[in-house]
Design a protein that fits this description.
This protein has 2 domains: 268 residues, TIM Barrel; 62 residues, no CATH class. The chain contains 15 helices and 12 strands. Strands 3-4-5-6-7-8-9-12 form an 8-stranded parallel β-barrel, surrounded by 6 helices. It has a two-stranded antiparallel sheet with strand order 1-2. Helix 1 packs parallel to helix 10. Helix content is 42%, strand content 14%. It is of the alpha/beta class. The protein starts with a strand and ends with a helix. Strand 5, helix 3 and strand 6 form a beta-alpha-beta unit.
């Protein structure tokens, strides 16, 4: 597979890396198989985070014997120096390694987070100290706020940025990715496959025809992202070994889209979605204090916006999800955590209105 130097670091990475949010929900046995398969195929970049529940422990089972075969990255969502130091030490223990190739400040997407991270005794002080101690080789930053990521890239303190970029989230390609290239900052991409959302939606029928399933495939969305010359590595998150192999085979032989193909693909893809900001099924809105399965309800509602609400299957699926939206306390915690700043509570109320009927 083609490899790229990640910014001005000495990490020469494969065009796709292993993202590990999906293995949270998989058994340890299945997760370890996926990680081994990625390394067997030659994929040499693995990304995780302290916030990704037990993913670090699962990766650590493989790192015991294969640490030298990959560049390993983790992230901290803590904002103070003491919390960040503790999080890093926990990550090192879980991952069964004494250093990380890349450690990122996680989700710097709002001004209050920026202020805390760069304040005296903030997280940035902790990662700089850890770098001096040899526990971190390179420092990076992740986020969903493009203007803020641009400011961070200009600072000269970060070797790598991690941004959300796909055919439905185009903003990074206009200025952020070119800026990062010009500053020698490596570009990692999360959500190249739109969190799988694009493959589950329904294409509206034309001229009275029945709606049809999406004809967009993972290879299409991945090809779109990898066709951008400014993208060094796209993180894929397989749930099965077969998905890992499929992603590898495609990335190993893909041909970049030309501009005509790009525009046609963007137009085709956008016809799948309602004219509202897109939920990309990242799950950051959870956990809900009331226990509501917000992420599943958000995707279900998004599907409904492309299909008449009396679709029996949707109602059946809705009634399986507990507790009901009525349990919402209107605390707004989900919206505060949402990277896309979606009006989650309103969408959940609308979903209830459309679906809360006898099956």
């Amino acid at each position: 597979m083609e490899k790229r130097r990640l910014g001005q670091t000495d990490m020469v990475v494969t065009r796709i890396g292993l993202g590990t949010i999906p293995i949270i929900k998989e058994s340890k046995w299945r997760a370890v198989r996926i990680i081994h398969k990625a390394l067997d195929l030659g994929i040499n970049f693995i990304d995780t985070a302290r916030a990704y529940e037990d993913s670090e422990e699962k990766i650590g089972e493989v790192m015991k014997t294969r640490r030298s075969e990959c560049f390993l990255a983790s992230k901290s969502h803590f904002r103070t120096a003491s919390e960040t130091t503790e999080a890093l030490e926990t990550s090192l223990r879980n991952l069964q390694t004494d250093y990380l190739d890349l450690y990122m400040l996680h989700d710097i997407s709002a001004q209050d987070r920026w202020d805390l991270v760069f304040a005296p005794n903030g997280a940035f002080e902790a990662v700089k100290k850890a770098q001096q101690q040899g526990k971190i080789r390179y420092i990076g930053v992740s986020g969903h706020n493009v203007p803020m990521l641009m400011d961070l890239a200009r600072m000269g303190e970060f070797s790598v940025i991690l941004t959300c970029y796909n055919f439905m989230t185009l903003e990074p390609e206009y200025e952020l990715i070119p800026l990062a290239q010009s500053k020698g900052v490596g570009v990692l991409v999360m959500k190249p496959n739109v969190g799988g959302v694009a493959f589950r939606l329904i294409r509206p029928g034309k001229d009275g025809q029945e709606p049809q399933p999406s004809d967009i495939k993972p290879r299409d969305t991945l090809r779109f992202v990898l066709s951008n010359p400014g993208v060094d590595c796209a993180l894929v998150g397989p749930k099965r070994v077969g998905e890992m192999v499929e992603n590898y085979r495609f990335a190993n032989r893909f041909e970049p889209m030309d501009e005509t193909e790009r525009q046609k693909f963007i137009e085709s893809g956008q016809s799948l979605f309602p004219k509202m900001p897109l939920c990309q099924d990242c799950g950051y809105c959870e956990p809900c204090p009331a226990g509501i399965p917000i992420a599943k309800l958000m995707v279900l509602y998004q599907n409904l916006c492309r299909l008449f609400f009396e679709w029996p299957r949707s109602r059946k699926e809705y009634h399986k999800l507990q507790p009901d939206v009525a349990a919402c306390t209107d605390c707004g915690a989900c919206e505060e955590r949402c990277p896309q700043k979606l009006n989650i509570r309103e969408r959940l109320r609308n979903a209830k209105k459309r679906l809360d009927h006898p099956v």
